Amino acid sequence: MSTIHVNGRTLQTTHQTVQLVVNELGLSSGRYAVEVDGELVPKSELAQLRIVEGMNIEVVQAVGGG
To answer: Do residues 3 and 32 touch, judged by C-beta distance below 8 A?
Structure first.
């Protein structure tokens, strides 16, 4: 089990990849961007990016309007 930080919250997870964490938290719907430890990560790489103890993940949802 790893302790990580997602959008300012400390969580414990048994998931192995960032994509699984983002999916479990319901943050993967619509348009979104993911930053890991201060670096923007392409969505195509999230399924291969392994969770590391203390990792800091920020997920931002795009909101449209006019």
So the answer is: no
Which tokens in the block code for residue 38?
């201060």
Tokens describing residue 66: 């006019």
What's the pTM value of the predicted model, to 2 decimals? 0.88
Residue type, 31: R
Burial of residue 13 (CB within 10 Å: 0-12, 13-18, 19+) is middle
Domains of the chain with CATH codes: 2-61 (3.10.20.30)
Residue-wise pLDDT tens digits, 14-34: 999 999 999 999 998 889 999
